[in-house]
Amino acid sequence: MKKIIMLTTGGTIASQEGADGLTPVVKGDTMIQMIPKLANLCEIEVREVMNLDSTNMQPEEWVQLAGAVAESLPQCDGIVITHGTDTMAYTASALTWMLQNLGKPVILTGSQLPVEHPQTDGKQNIYDAFCAATAGRPGVYIVFHGRILRGCSARKVCTESLDAFRSINEPDVGKILDGRVIFFAEPEDIPSEAFYLDASLDTHVVYLQLYPGFETDLLETVIEKGYRGIILAGFGSGGVPFHNRNLLPAIEKAIQSGIRVIITTQCQQEGTNLNLYEVGIRAAKLGCLSGEKYTPEALITRLMWELGHK
Q: pTM above the 0.85 mark?
């Protein structure tokens, strides 16, 4: 029987009603006891890492969690992480970059309703996550409402619906149906080198969504504050305005001062293309990089991770 370690971090799944609303208090062992059929699936060890609403999860907690994963991996066949839904996609993306040459499954899950709620989705999501972990496919994934999503391609798209996550710009990895794990394709690559933890991050990154009327002094302020990376969510395929409120001089100043500038799109599907319109080509000629088909969560965490090495 395989051994799976569950790392708990809090979130809605662990929450109870308190004086100021839902707050995470339920322990991991309690959640496991509420799902008896897990006993026939695998050996389980629960480790409490933190107990936070995921809104309060910061890069420092990503590093702490990545360290807990790295410490636990040699002692098990896979990891399940219970996590709040609101920033789960950020954590999944960050872990994707920090857990290098990952040869075992690391599965994040959570719920839209607390595990003690009569209509909770938490029990099923936890069971599905353990099913995915025992399947043994290496990598970081989110398992939610029967979907298996690559960690750095997932987004939370619904605030209340139980089917809250979608894979952006790539198909789902698989699904879980009545405990059966079904993968839609073979893994892209199986690591041939040894696993290692690389948790260096530089959080001096800012994400700005452009809008008609966006003033250039906002970019000037970012430059003055010493940020090392700027992600601009442009219009359409990545357009940046240069008429009237011309953002290009400030962008050029940022690049010349050593700041990495990435242009992405505000559209959820089909990604960025800076080679199509003049409003994208001009930005690219200054040295802006394309956000390609990355989600905002993946872009932000990837840039933090890359800047942590340069």
A: yes
